[in-house]
Rho GTPase-activating protein 26
Amino acid sequence: MGLPALEFSDCYLDSPQFRERLKSHEAELDKTNKFIKELIKDGKALILALKSLSTAKRKFADSLNDFKFQCIGDAETDDEMCIAKSLQEFATVLQNLEDERTRMIENANDVLILPLERFRKEQISAAKEAKKKYDKETEKYCGVLEKHLSLSAKKKEAHLHEADNQVDNVRQHFYEVSLEYVFKVQEVQERKMFEFVEPLLAFLQGLFTYYHHGYELAKDFNHFKTDLTISIQNTRNRFESTRSEVESLMRKMKENPHEHKSISQHTMEGYLFVLEKRSFVSTWVKYYCTYHREPKRVTMVLFDPKSGGKMGEEESFILKSCIRRKTDSIEKRFCFDVEATDRPGVITMQALSEEDRRLWMEAMDGREPVYNLNKDSQAEGMAQLDVIGFNVMKKFIYAVETRGIDEQGLYRIAGVNSKVQKLLSLAMDPKTCADVELDSPEWEIKTITSAIKHYLRVLPAPLMTYQYQRSFIKAAKMDNPEARVTEIHALVHRLPEKNRQMLELLVKHLANVASHHHQNLMTIANLGVVFGPTLLRPQEETVAAIMDIKFQNIVVEILIEHHERIFRDIPNSAGGPNNMQSNQSRRRSTENKAPSCSERPLTLFHTPTHSQKGEKRNSVADVQNSTNCNSSSSSSSSGGSHSQTPRHSLTSNDGEPDGRQTRPSSLLNPKSRGSIPTSATTPSPTSPRSPSWPMFSAPSSPHPVSSASSDSSPVSVSGRKAIALYACKAEHESELSFIAGTVFMNVHASREPGWLEGTLDGRTGLIPENYVEFLQ
């Protein structure tokens, strides 16, 4: 196991476990510092003492052989493993050269000693200075906090307010120093992977130049040297990408720390001061407390960061009640009393602030917690894996491959953001997409490539899905390269159909780009660095997730390198032809059934746009499905009532129509509810597992009710509960609007054929029968 990642959110909790993890990083830095110091000493002895060259070389080689790298995370990439074993390789070469000593060692000081001294002085020393500052601020903050908490509540309000502001300023400064120290420690741990090994590689290259007999050894070493150079460069590139992500996360934490606090496995945790009576004297003792809501267990650990982080024994009790202390009943502020079921008496606790006391009270008295709104639900992006998205991607890719596939830095060089946004908005709009001429000089290649990356970034979920993100990372961490390819091959074929199709389209294009790397300088590794974080972005932005970016890059590299096998062949786990036939027959058998909750996602739904909501209910509704901007539209009417008919002018890449369901006229127009739609006027439902399922969008209408069911008496469903399978927008005041997952009460048959009647939030209304599924 490597060093644990230090989360920025832990700086705000300042828990004992965080201090222990920080100590392990500090110990590793001290170990590295001592080793570099010893290595520099040995290098100078090697240069100055030619007569003892053999002894110095052996000692130097032994030092290299004994040192082991500790990487952040639970697994290492191939490049990191290559770098880690490089020291052992260097030691082997030095031992082989012992018998072929010469007296020519020049420039060794410039290529070996100075870079190591620079790293030690600029990086490790800077980390030590940051530690001193962090320890000083810790002591200062704890002292000010204790002094502040000992203030009497009877002081003047102005005095208390000023004291609160002073503590807030000291606390904020402590948090900033803590964040900067954690950032510096992890930065040095990452830097040593290349700034430490690179001088050693240069030193070895110098030795080969001056040793005649070493020429043959150099030829044998050349293959590993090449791999190591690539590994160092790849590690450096990943470090630059990772460092910018971590630095960005640190800035976000500084600007709005409350939004980025880590989600604890406990209901509540943090420091509390507990009133204890010792030798007939009452004293306040600082504990780190955790509270689990389910068993109502409170755990307290005696811990004081000022005393060097010594941890006392753990105490726990089962919570019985929690009561807020009145201000006039105790001199201290922010106090509350708790009672335990397994110990007598009342325990008085003091929180760190009024807000902290409120959080503890909410956690302990069982009131509903306040949940943050999902940021993704605040705005609905226009980027979707729909027909428009596929055609825009194909159009962009064609432009890149025909106009600028040999441009240097393709996909590396970013376009102007305003132009990228303008291109995407025009290309994604059915009204303007025909006017977009990508051959025009107005659209530079860097603008088009940036538009491709931006489209993939703003999808509601990453192209390779949150569901399989960890599975892809685990596959990249496998030791066996062939096992990695096999596992990723299988995972790709588990992706939803549209995701896999879009991924295949993109990866084949990237393979084409990589085949021109001599001209555009975009190797497979470089493309992995560009697209890894986009295709496999994590659901939660943490330091640990950022450290996995290097494995995201490896996944993309494997996809590009083995794209023909991955997308052409069915993985062995998927079964042979018999399995495929059974899957097809199973898919056909489900085409006439409404999808169940387990068969389709309940998080992605198609909602009508503002213009669609404004359409008149009784007018002719034209369904426009555009793959190209030249798609035509038509409408049909029957008798005195109008019905919607799907347009099949949109075709997928293989020419199959993109069938979309429409809401029957009897459901759209309340006046026509008396007539039941038949299969002759309404398209049959499409199975969600079928390739023609409309882009993970819920059907805009319930499935039609068969004539047999409409003629018979309503099924007895009185008083049952039902859950919504799809989202639905009411088009009449007697109907209910709802989203997928909504639970209805008292659901029973309605007089209107194809409709049920149920209650939602105290309001009774009509529900489409085939939009819901009854609960047991």
Remarks:
- Residues 366-380, 574-717 have pLDDT under 50 and may be disordered.
- Residues 714 and 751 are 8 Å apart (CA to CA).
- The two ends are 47 Å apart (CA to CA).
